[in-house]
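Kindly inspect this one:
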Amino acid sequence: MKTLFFLPKPRYLLSLASLFHTFPNPNPNPNFQRPSSHKLVNRPPPYRHWDLPIPTPRQTLNPNPNPNPVPNFSQADFSSICALLTDPALSSGASLEDALSRTGIKPCSGLLEAIFGHFDSSPKPLFTLFCWAVKQHGFESSETLFNFMVDVLAKSRAFDSAWLLLLDRAEAGEQPDLVSSNTFSILIRRYARAGMTFSAIRTFEFARSLDSIRDQDSEWSLLEILLDSLCKEGHVRVASEYFDQQKGLNLSWVPSIRVYNILLNGWFRSRKLKHAERLWRTMKKENVIPTVVTYGTLVEGYCRMRRSERAIELVDEMRVVGIEPNAIVYNPIIDSFSEAGRFKEAMGMMERCLVSETGPTISTYNSLVKGFCKAGDLAGASKVLRMMISRDVAPTLTTYNYFFRYFSRYGKIEEGMNLYTKIIESGHTPDRLSYHLLIKMMCEEERLDLAMQVRKEMRVRGCDLDLATSTMLIHLLCKMRKLEEAFAEFEDMIRRGIVPQYLTFERMNNALRKRGLTDMARKLCEMMTYVPHSSKLPSTYSGDRDASRERKTSIIQRAEAISDILKTCNDPRELVKRRSSFENTTSVADRLIEDIKRRANKT
């Protein structure tokens, strides 16, 4: 079966930027000939008042924060390994290792780090590549590469493999500096994100028992990472209880202000206002000296609870205690006003921020851009964009992603592709979220040709397809009755170690059987048997909650019926008669419902 998974050579890739070019290129290529027409955009549209300026690379942040001007590997080696990792005929494990050995490439850490940056959503092939490289003579892994491998495995919840890799390095005694506090912080954050709070705490306990962690005085910073990870993932109660436990075990320990800031932020993120205020009173009682970050956390928390007036009162309180507000404090207020569409007040707070010592930051302007885009005011968002550029504040991809969100929300394909064109031609590389929003827009508008073209450019420009992007493409392919292509996309997800959603499997399986493609459907079922997955559809995950909701609804309905009877009936005998009649009716209905449920479960 012909498959779609390959990395095309650059000369064969037709850029989307060439398909949707509407603005002059500042550095045109005289050898490149642009197609004269396209079925979506046949000619450059007239200039609009909301056309977005894209500064040149020297005006903006470097799209690659860690550039390597002189790589210690050849581009040919990089391309060869990338081709093997995307070859659908090669499964992870022995077959891929044999293919890598036949290339004769001598791997180095720089080469693998570059490849990992392109395939961070393909854990199985990357793990095979790393294990193969470790076996090669003269190969030494860097700490960055080792932590990258641990993160990729933990991200896919292959925690057993991550621990085997970590313990193997720690016990071997070779390159002892590979396993550091950064390695354990990765595991702690991934455990917290997976909701495995006990495992996150056990990881910290194990790390603090190592001499290398104690010698580096990293124990308390790792504790802060643990509490921060738990709080950010909604487990603030667990974090607070563990914090109290540590204070009880070590009476001489004086927690840093950062620990209190983390817990404050956690209570506010969980919308537990009383707990946050109680902690704030405790801090005052224990004479904990707040910092500007503490007040920024309080201000952000009250803004999150839609209490902007209280947040402004805290700004005045800061000045009383001698702390000058800065962008950390003003940004949440501006963001809150922008989210609520109160742009006059947001711009007024921006004026106060302009006269502060630090002035507005990129986050300040991004809050305004986000608010205007959410309100559907593209002209206002464009005005803020020009204002920030005129003040030498360089917009980032996050800034432009808010515009992509707007275009995706309103199905403005042409405008979205024009922005994508300008970003590419200005020398920048869109990030994963940019491509995700573009593909989402194409799928919602059922533009399969453009969605597949964006997918190609996404891979060539170094963004691996994640679960969300692959799922959207598969659903669109099924909807467009491109079942062979959908099956190839599904198969590639399994090969890369990404577990598809059960809803996606059900949709594909039903579509294949309806089309009479039973062999393909059987192979699809076989693939799902080898990966851990849930057999519940999204609507069936909350069965117990649904039953509880039904009972509550039934009680409310009975109470309302009795209330109506009491309003019109004064005879006690009549009330008893109606009550028994009502109870008989509801009991019969309840028995019928239970009988239907039992029959459904048997089938």
Observations:
- Residues 572-602 form the longest helix (31 residues).
- DSSP finds 30 helices and no strands in the chain.
- Confidence is low (pLDDT under 50) at residues 1-50, 58-69, 540-545.
